[in-house]
């Protein structure tokens, strides 16, 4: 009986050591996987879940939004009006270069770490900021362009090149009529913090 108890005890110790080793290897493997995780992968999951987050932009601007789409160099989101208001949602296009952080709850933060199956980028993820802005120009949608310097510009995008756009300036809510245009601006994409479409407009995303 003593030998049986001894072997039972040894087997228990060995099983415990093996379990601890397996747990250590799994933890190290997970740390290695996360060390290779890039921001796009996490944004892809968050956009797919239409996550409610607060985006931090240049110059301390913060916007509560529902993430909707991930492009080649931008994210698309729907604004989240303050609770209790009837404000219509507008669509925001945010260059990834202007993104300074995401305010997010702990559950969503952890879910964005989940392992994803290998997959090719879908068509939307290949769309560049210029491609999307050219679509806004084609639709003649009034927009509000917020720049990294803190300017708020209202107008309509006349055209978008490879790295810049032409904006016809006019009052918010008015159509782009020759009589309404107050001036024109050429804006480099790198100077854009956010492009917001008019609430209720035919949205591109």
Task: Describe the protein.
This protein is of the alpha+beta class and 205 residues long. 30% of the residues lie in helices and 31% in strands. It has four helices and ten strands. Strands 5-1-2-3-4-10-6-7-8-9 form a ten-stranded antiparallel sheet. It starts with a helix and ends in an 8-residue tail after the last strand.
Supply database-style keywords.
205 residues; alpha+beta; ten-stranded antiparallel beta sheet; 4 helices; 31% strand; elongated
SSE topology:
Layout: H1 2-35, H2 39-48, E1 52-57, E2 62-70, E3 74-79, E4 91-95, E5 99-103, H3 106-111, H4 129-139, E6 142-147, E7 152-160, E8 164-169, E9 183-188, E10 192-197
Antiparallel strand pairs: 1-2, 1-5, 2-3, 3-4, 4-10, 6-7, 6-10, 7-8, 8-9
Mass-distribution shape: elongated
Contiguous low-pLDDT stretches (5 residues minimum) are none
Helix and strand composition category = alpha+beta
Order of strands across the widest beta sheet? 5-1-2-3-4-10-6-7-8-9
Q: How far is the first residue's CA from the last residue's CA?
A: 74 Å
Radius of gyration: 25 Å
Q: Percent of residues in helical segments?
A: 25-40%
State the gist of this model.
With 205 residues, the protein is α+β, with helices and mostly antiparallel strands.
